[in-house]
Amino acid sequence: MKRAFITGIEGQDGSYLAELLLAKNYEVHGLYRRSTNGGSPNLKHLRANPLVFQKTLFLYPADLDEVDSIRVPLEKAAPDEIYHLASQSHVGQSFEKVEETCRVTGLGTLRLLELARQLPRPARFFHASSSEIFGSPEQSPQDENTPVNPITPYGCAKAFGTQLTKIYRKNFGLFAVNGILFNHESPRRGENFVTRKICRAVAAIKAGRQKELVLGDTSAQRDWGNARDYVRGLWLTLQHETPEDFVFATGKLNRVQDIVEIAFRAVELDWRQYVRQEAALFRAADPRQVVGNPAKAKQLLGWEPTITFEQTIVEMTRAELSA
C-alpha cells in the first residue's frame, strides 16, 4: 500500500485527490488548516466512513508557518508521494493580504521542500503551480517553456515556489515536479470565486430566494477546466518515470458571460430577465489571453480533459440548487 501526504486536503483539489488515492488503495495522510477545525464539508463524507477514517485516511491540523506542525505528521506518514496543494489561492485577495500570501504560498513551499529533502526515505514531490506565474504572457497558448512574469502577489508567490521546486530537483536530486494548473472548477470551488458565485446566485433565483444577479463586465475570458480531471493529472505526474513540469489546461477560452448563460439555461430561466450590470463593478479591461497548451501532458502522461466546461457549470448549478 502506497502512502501519500497531502497539504490542503480540505480544499477542492485536496478532497478530490484524497478520493482518487483512496480508490487506488493508498493510505492517505492530510493536513488541514487549524482555523477550519477539520470541519470542511469536502471531507465530511470521508470522516463519516468508518471503513476509511482513521483506517486509511488520517488528518492533522497544521499551519504552514509552523514547521513542527508539518514535520511531525510528515515523518509519521513516511510517504511515497507528497502533494503540496495548500496556499492562499485567491488572486484578488492576494492584493489585500500580500504578506500572508507570500508567507503561506511561497515560504510554505520552501518549508515543505526542505522537510521532504530531509526524510530518511525519498518521496516524490508535487507542487501545485498556477497559470498566474505567466502574468500577461506575450505568447498564446502558454506551455512549460513560457517565460515566468507574474503580475499579482499570488502569481509572484507561486513563481517563487515553482522555481524552488526546480532548484530542489536539479541541485538536491529530489523527484520534484510542478503541475502548472489553469483555472479549474467544481461544486467544491470556494464561494469567493466567480464561477461559484454565479452558480449559487442562479440557484437562489430559481428557488425564489434572490431576485437578480448583479455583475460587472462579463467579457473576461479564462481557460476553465474541471477539478477532477486536473487532480487525475497531478497523480499521473508522480507516476511518470522522470520528474518534469506539466501544464494542465483545456486549451479553450470561455467568457464569464458563458457561465451566466449556461447556469440560467440549466435551471430553465432566461438570464436576460435576471442579470443587471452595474458600472461600479466594472474593472479595467483584462487583455490577457491566459490559455494553456496541455500537449506535453497528453503526449507523456496520456492526460486530457474528459469533462467539458458546460458540463462543469451545469453540475455546479444543480449542486447549488440541491443544497
Tell me the name of the CATH homologous superfamily of the largest domain. NAD(P)-binding Rossmann-like Domain
CATH class of the largest domain: Alpha Beta
- Structural class designation: alpha/beta
CATH fold node name of the largest domain:
Rossmann fold
Task: Summarize the structure in words.
With 323 residues, the chain is α/β, with parallel strands linked by helices. The chain has 2 domains: 3-184 and 226-248, Rossmann fold (3-Layer(aba) Sandwich); 190-222 and 253-290 and 306-322, UDP-galactose 4-epimerase, domain 1 (Alpha-Beta Complex), CATH 3.90.25. The protein is 41% helix and 16% strand. It is built from 11 helices and 13 strands. It has helices spanning 12-23, 44-47, 67-77, 91-96, 98-117, 153-172, 194-206, 227-239, 256-266, 295-301, 309-322; strands spanning 3-7, 27-33, 57-62, 81-84, 124-130, 176-181, 184-185, 213-215, 221-222, 225-226, 246-248, 254-255, 275-277. The chain has a 7-stranded parallel β-sheet, with helices on both faces. Helix 1 links the parallel strand 1 and strand 2 (27-33). The protein is globular.
Quick recap:
The protein is an alpha/beta fold and 323 residues long. It is 41% helix and 16% strand.
